[in-house]
Structure formats: structure tokens, C-alpha cells
Amino acid sequence: MSLILTLRPITFPAKCQPAERTAAEELARLTGATAAAAGRPGRGLNVALAARGWAPAAAKAARAATGWMWLRVDEHGAGEVIASEGSGLFAAVRLLAHGLTGATREKLARGLLLRRSFALNRPIWDASFAQYWKSNRQFCPEQYAATLAEAGFTHLEINSLHSHFPYEDSVPGEYYSQFYTYCPGFNHFIDTPLTRGIWPTQYLDANLARLRDLAALGRKYGLKPGVCLYEPRSLPERFFQRYPTLRGARIDHPFRSRLPRYTLAQDHPVTQSHYRLAVQALMKAVPDLDAMSIWTNDSGGGFEHTASLYIGRNGGPYMIREWRSHEKIAEAAGKSIGKFLRNLREAAATVNPDFKVSLRIEPFKVEHDHLKSELGRGVHWEGPSLLARGYSLPYSHPRYADQLGVAGGMFHCQMDEREAGELKKERAQGVEPILTYSPGPVWNQEPLIGIPWPRMIHARLTQLKGIGANMVSAMGGLANTTAAPYWPNPAAIRAAQFTPDRPIADVLAAEAVRFAGATHGPALAKAWELFEEAVTWQPVVPLFCGFGFCWQRTWDRPLVPDIEAIPAAERHYYERHGCFQHNNPGINDLGKDVLFNLITRESADKMVPRFDRELLPRIAKAEKFVAATLAKCAGDAQATAVFADLRDRLRGYRHWATTLRSVAAWCSGVYGYLETKSAAQKRRYEKFLQAAIDLELANTRGLLEHFENSPTEFMVVSATGESTFIYGKNLGEHLRTKIRLMEKYRHRKPRIDRDILWRPAPNLPWPDGLETTSG
Q1: Given CB 3.0 to 4.6 Å as the disulfide criterion, which of 38, 191, 668, 758 pairs with 604?
Q2: ω into residue 447 within 30 of 0, thus cis?
Q3: Distance CA 127, CA 725 (A)
Q4: Dihedral pair phi/psi, residue 662, rounded to 5°
Q5: Hey, which bits of 134-200 come out as E strands?
Q6: What pLDDT is attached to residue 101?
Q7: Which of these, 475, 500, 279, lies nearest to 378 by C-alpha position?
Q8: pLDDT on residue 1
């Protein structure tokens, strides 16, 4: 409930920033007051940035603090809402309107100063707003920006392609060009004299116009524009035919590509000049661009001579001569990366002195120390832990100690006691790291949305604040918040940012009452608790819990003992958008992708009972509670809407979890059958697989009904057509085909053709007389 019963007229500065007008008009909309611009503070409620000097009491209370808001409203509805930055103004207004948990009218009349826990809190790889889910239906960019500001975010990610597919040179039969769909680099927005004519002008102009529009939307809510880029990004071969001495590292994945891709030689002065001009062009388009996160050594980007390049260490001739030791190569590569980052930072700082560049640190295990010594002065590293060294981290699943590597994901809700000491060491060297956390489904529960686990998020942010972290970034963003209107995760983030001392149980109780009303609010809080309790027992199925769920076509591919018993023509409906190559073992083996062993028989044997004994029964318990509560909500339309929404998300989560269980069961059964020499054991595995197929068939029929009839958007669905990263509206048709094919081919003997690796490209057989199997 709002602490404000009546407000006098609202005043905001005549020569205002967009965020000041937005905040004032939002408060007027929520309270029924009027809002008008004026050259000086009015006698009612004044809404302004701190720099205006409209509230001396606020400045006195804040002293030298950064990142704060001041709220003062007396019994007559007069006072001020002041914030040190624009996003804080909008957050303050929403806090006033929704009720400051634990505040009283007396405190509000005296004035409340709320400090941000984190000076920087930005989304990176923002899937629904900017990256590979941006075609998701029922998504409103403005509602999303407002949600970010309300939740305490400071930035908005703006590098996003105008189209849903990148302009990238490719050849028939390869997948690699689709990795340029997300986090597009400089070359997709601007050109320099070096690259002019490589990309169509209309393509660049359309992408740059979208980038500017997203920046303008962010300004409306006081969110600073930021970008997340894969750089140094490759250039097409036709460029290097023109400038062969600028060829740098080969950075593509040789299994997924058929066309080698190279970056510029990063130490060449022409390359450095090109990047300075590129940054300056970007700053000209968006002068207030504030933050740039560089991801690399993947998805079309990479640094020369670094050990984690898919092709191995390689690069141009300018960084290091031949026959040097591995340590000397690592040192040269690390220093060169630092030089590259400083070049970007210095070029941007001529326009925005506060500009920040960060580098995702995990790919650089070998170059780690050399690279870190180059950072500081506006150049940061970004990662899930101060203990990070490569992808090896001391964090395991909170329920399953043998499941390692959860750092940065939803299950990273513990804190190693060594983290605080490492942060002090970093700062002593002049480096301020940006630590990541996971706020939603991206890389955790794709393609679902609206799954509640607010306590885990709050715990992670509370622990980050506890060690003294000042800058954080949210992996994947909040996804489609428009289609998940009763999702409690943003409230947990807001509480950790602005009211960190308030118990999360109290925060969620208040949020539940806001959504479902005083009568049914306690039941909603209990339902969230039951749902999250189930989620904490979710096993991590490598790749499949994240983007791999869609790109392996996990929901619509038939799970049968011999996948290739299904003719290629009948598999085409799902393989056409899968991350498959003609010789990728993932075509016929669910536990593998290229040369990665995703799921071993041993890990699958553990996961299946964990789904059966731990996760699925807890989902059923939550579903039973929500169904019973819905029956009590008759006559209360709002509460009914809220609980129906949660019911549908629980059901969607059950179908998703059951399919993951089926993937693990396939690996357990098929691998077990193929490994054993015992006829009795083979029969046992066949029986186990047939039971798993029965379960998955029933699950798929249920999912089909749910997908086609649920009024709730429980998953992201593309409004324009499916891609590797998102399902389309034709998922129902695909599910029907899956059911038909599973029924037809379910009784084949388990089989995996391990020689798929050596297959020739389609329509291009090997010449006669050659060995075509491994023996």
C-alpha cells in the first residue's frame, strides 16, 4: 500500500533531463496528482536530480555519498523526491507508490535517504531486449526499461541488430554465421575508412538507428547506455585479400565453421587507428555511452596468440616472434589485450571521461596474471568470482556437491570466505572488478520465463555487498518481464539495491500482497517459497539448461533409442534450426556436442533419480498448493489472475524438467545398453528406455496442450519465426511430429554411429578407395 494518501501538485525542472519528466509524470499517474515543469521548486512535491540543488537537506544528508535517493513527503503531500542519477528518480517514485517496506509516515515526513548497494548494476547479454530473444512476442521494450530502473539497474544494453539475422559471409552447410546474431560488434553499426564497403550501408544505418533509439529509451528512465560486444570481431576473407598484412588470429570454431575467419592483427598501428575511429563514431552517435563489456575468444571474436582460441594459439606476425616459450607468448598476449582495451577506453574518454571498459576474464586462464597487470584507470575485468582463473571455480550446486561450475549462474548463492581478501588485493593494484550474477532464466532455464527464485538472487547480491563489491552485472538481463507481470525476482533485486537490511521474507510478503491482495497475498508468498524450494533441487544438465535447450531442439526432437533410424528427411523439421553440422555427434547422441562430452553415463545415472526423487515431487507439491489456492479465489479476479499465471508457469516448468529428465534417461539407458556385454543387462536397459519414452510421450502431449491453450506466456516465443535460439509459433506442429515419430521408432535397438565424425558433406561423397570409418 502506498504511504501517500494525497499529493499536492508535482513540480519538475523546466529544462529537465528526460528522466526527471518521466519520474514526475509517473508519480502523477500513480497518485492522481498533476505534474508541471517550473524554473524553481514549487510548494508541492518536487522531483529533480540532486545536481539541481532543489533540496539542500538531501545534499546535507547524502554528504559525499554516490548513488542515493532522498524521499520526503509531509502530511500535506509536499516535499521532494531527489536522486543522484536519473534511474534512481524513477525507482524512488515506484518505491513511494508501491510502499516502502518498513517505512512509516513519520519517517517519510522527516526524510529518508536510501543509498544504492551497487553504483553500477547493468544487464549484459540482455537476451529479450537486445540479443537473441529480441523477437519474443508480447514484449514491450518500454515496460522492460521501466522495470530495470525500478529494480535498481543503472544501465541499458543498446547494441542490438535491427534484423533478426546478421549480415555475415558464409558458405552452404555451415552454422557459424549464426553466432553473430548476439552481442554484435563495431562492424555491424559503423565503418571506418579501413572497412568502408565491406558491409551494406543500409544494414549499418538500420542497426545504428536501432542503437540510438534504444539509447533514447534508456535516457527516458535515467538508464545509461552500455554495450556488450564480441571483439576483436572477424572480418571477411575478401577484406584480407585486399589487406593481407593485417591478418591476425584465426578465431572460428573449426567444427562449426566451413569458412576460416580471422581478426585484424591487433598490434598493427592501422588496426589501432581503426578501433579508435570506430569508438569515436559510436560515441558520436551516442555521446553518453557509458560502459562497454568485451566478450571474446568465442562467437566470432578473439585475441591473438591466446591459449583458449578454438583453433589454438595463433595470430599475425607483429606480437611475438617464433620459437618463444609458452610463458613469453602468454605475457605478450596479455599485455597486448591490455593495450587494446586502453585504446578503446582512451578514444571514448575524449567524449565521456567516465567511460568504462570491461573484459570477461574467464577465457584467459593462461594469460590471467599478465592481463590483470594491465588493467585499472577505467579498464576493468568482469566475471563471477574473484577466485576465477579460467573456468575453474570453487563453487558447486547447493544441493548436489558433485555438480561443479555453477559460479555466475542461478545456483551461485554462496560466497567463499576468500573473496573479500581478493577484492582488497585487486583494489590495492588499482583494479575495480565487475562481478556477475544471474537474475533470470537466460543460461539457467531457457526458454522459460517468470520462474521465481527471489531468495537465491537476494542471497547472491547480499553476499556481493557483504564483501564490498561496488559494481555488478546481470547475466542475460531479466528476459520478457512484460509477459511475466507477477514475477518476484525484480523485487528481490530492488530490495538488495535500496533496502538491503530488510529481510527478504518481508519484501516478498509485501510484494505478494501488492499482486494478490491482503486476503490471498500470504498464500502467494507461500507458493513462491514452494516453487523456489523445488527450483533449488533442479539438477544442472550441461548446455541443456541454457541456450543448448533450444539449439539442440530439446523439446521438439524425438527421443528414441536410435535417433538415426529416423530418416534424415523426417528429422529435417527440427534439424533445420538446430546447432547441428552433418558430422556433429549431437545429431545422434544427446550427450555430446561436437567434441564435448556433455553428459556421461555416470552423471546421467545420478541425474535421473534426482529428478524423480527431488525435483519433480516438489514441483507436484507446489502445483497442488496453487490449485487449492485457486479454488479459494473464486470471485477475486485479481488473485485468480495471479495464481492462474503461477499455475501455468509451474506446469511449464514441470514439462521442461521432465524433458531434461528424459535427456538424462536417454544417456543412461543408451550408453548403458551399448557398454554392457550382458544380454540380461541389455534387456534391463531396453525396459528402462521404454519407460522413459512412455514418460516423455505423455509429457509431450501435455506440453502440446499447454502450449496451444494456456493463456499465460510461460516461455519465450518468437513473433517472427523460430531460430536456433528461440522457438516459434509452430512449436505445436513440431510436437505433433515428435509424438508421431517417437511412436513409430521407439522400439528400435539402441544405436549410435560413432563414425559420424568422418562423414563427408551432403552431396559430396568421399572418393572411392578411401577408409571412411575409424575401425
Answers
A1: 668
A2: yes
A3: 10
A4: -65, -40
A5: 155-157
A6: 59
A7: 279
A8: 43
Alpha helices in 221-268 (DSSP H): 237-242
Q: Which one, of 129, 112, 149, lies nearest residue 4 by Cα?
A: 112
Compute the CA torsion angle 74, 75, 78, 80 (nearest 10 deg).
30
775 CB-near residues (< 8 Å, 6+ apart): none
Which element (helix H / strand E) includes 225? strand 224-230
Confirm if 248 and 264 have CB atoms less than 8 A apart: yes
The pLDDT, as a whole number, for residue 188 is 97
Distance CA 304, CA 271 (A): 13
Number of neighbours of residue 191 by Cβ within 10 angstroms: 19
Residues with Cβ < 8 Å from 555, sequence gap 6 or more?
549, 656, 659, 700, 703, 727, 731, 734, 735
pLDDT digits (tens, 9 = 90+) for 693-750: 999 999 999 999 999 999 999 999 999 999 999 999 999 999 999 999 999 999 999 9
Grid cell of 207 as nine digits? 542497426
Supply the DSSP symbol for 578.
S
The region that residue 476 occupies, defined by phi over 0 for left and psi between -120 and 50 for alpha, beta otherwise, is left
Assigned C-alpha cell, 166: 546478421
Please, which residues have CB within 8 angstroms of residue 750's CB and are 6 or more apart in sequence? Answer: 561, 562, 669, 670, 673, 674, 685, 686, 689
Give the closest residue to 576 by CA, choosing from 762, 724, 737, 760.
724
Least Cα distance to 117 among 499, 419, 488 occurs for 499
Query: Chain centroid to CA 24: how far?
Result: 31
Q: Which residue has the cell 521532494?
A: 80
**Cell numbers representing residue 161 in the block:** 541488430
pLDDT confidence of residue 151: 97
Q: How crowded is the C-beta side of 679, counted as CA atoms within 13 Å? A: 0
- Residue 242, amino acid: R
From first CA to last CA, the distance across the chain in angstroms is 72
Q: What is the DSSP string of 717-769?
A: -BSS--BTTB--TTHHHHHHHHHHHHHHHTTSPP---GGGGGPPPTT-PPPTT
Short-list 453, 459, 448, CA closest to 484:
448
Q: Which three cell numbers stand for residue 725?
A: 535460439
Residues 262, 184 contacting (CB under 8 angstroms): no
Mean pLDDT by 10 residues, the chain (775 residues): 66 97 96 94 95 88 85 91 96 86 77 95 98 97 98 98 93 89 97 97 98 98 98 98 98 94 98 98 98 97 97 94 90 97 98 98 95 95 94 91 94 94 96 97 97 98 97 98 98 96 95 97 98 98 96 97 97 95 94 95 98 98 98 96 98 98 98 98 98 98 98 97 96 98 98 94 86 77
Cis ω before 225 (30° cut-off from 0): no
Nearest to 4 by CA among 111, 101, 110, 108: 108
Length of the chain in terms of residues written: 775
Q: Which three cell numbers stand for residue 227?
A: 554495450
The three cell numbers of residue 479 are 528476459
The interaxial angle of helices 616-632 and 637-675, nearest 10 deg, is: 160
Cβ proximity of 23 and 92 under 8 Å: yes
pTM above 0.90, yes or no: yes
Q: Which residue in 646, 228, 298 sits closest to 474, CA to CA? A: 228
Question: Which residues 6+ apart lie within 8 Å of 115 measured at CB?
Answer: 62, 65, 67, 68
Q: What whole-number distance in Å separates Cα of residue 247 and Cα of residue 243?
A: 8
Cell numbers representing residue 524 in the block: 502467494
Whole-angstrom distance, CA of residue 652 vs CA of residue 713: 10
Q: What is the pLDDT of residues 579-606, one digit of tens each?
A: 988 999 999 999 999 999 999 999 999 9
Q: Tell how far CA 274 is from the center of its chain.
A: 30
Cα-only R_g, the chain: 27
Written as nine digits, the cell of 184 is: 554484435
Contact 252, 269 (CB under 8 A): no
Number of C-beta neighbours around residue 509 at 10 A = 18
The beta-strand segments (E) located in 330-450 are 356-360, 379-383, 434-437
